[in-house]
Amino acid sequence: QRMVGESAIPPQIGLTSASGDTHNEADLIDKIPPVTLTQHFIECYEAFVFREFDKTRDCAEKFISLQSLTMDSGSAMFARIFYFGLVSFWIGRETKDKKKKWIARGAESKVLI
Q1: pLDDT tops 80 at residue 10
Q2: What's the distance, Cα to Cα, between the start and end of the chain in Å?
Q3: pTM: predicted TM-score of the whole model, two decimal places
Q4: Could you tell me which of 45, 91, 40, 37 has the C-alpha nearest to residue 68?
Q5: Can you state the percent helix, strand and coil of the chain, rounding each to 5?
Q6: Sign of the alpha-carbon dihedral angle for 30, 35, 38, 42
Q7: Which end of the chain has less neighbouring CB within 10 Å, N or C?
Q8: Residue 15: pLDDT band by 50, 70, 90 thresholds?
Q9: What span, in angstroms and rounded, lies between the C-alpha atoms of 84 and 89?
Q10: Mapping DSSP to helix (H, G, I), strand (E, B) and coil, where does residue 46 land?
């Protein structure tokens, strides 16, 4: 059973953009790459901490696919690089990564730090 429950705060409905269009929070998540990237990072981190391997790998792959679309700097970027490196090494070990794709990503994270 999960240790982290659902949020008691309902999702925001009726967000209004600068152009006057109204959107639901869920509508915006997939349309703004930095928000989507952050969402996948948080899901990946949570899955990693609770050792949910399949979810960790799926979120990491989604994270990789969006990473080139955004620009990060500062401590948020450092945390992402650090945890993505840990996740990459873990996935590499668990899958016995013969192509060394995940291990190479972990090693790249070490260099970036």
Answers
A1: no
A2: 35
A3: 0.67
A4: 37
A5: 60, 5, 35
A6: negative
A7: N
A8: low
A9: 9
A10: helix
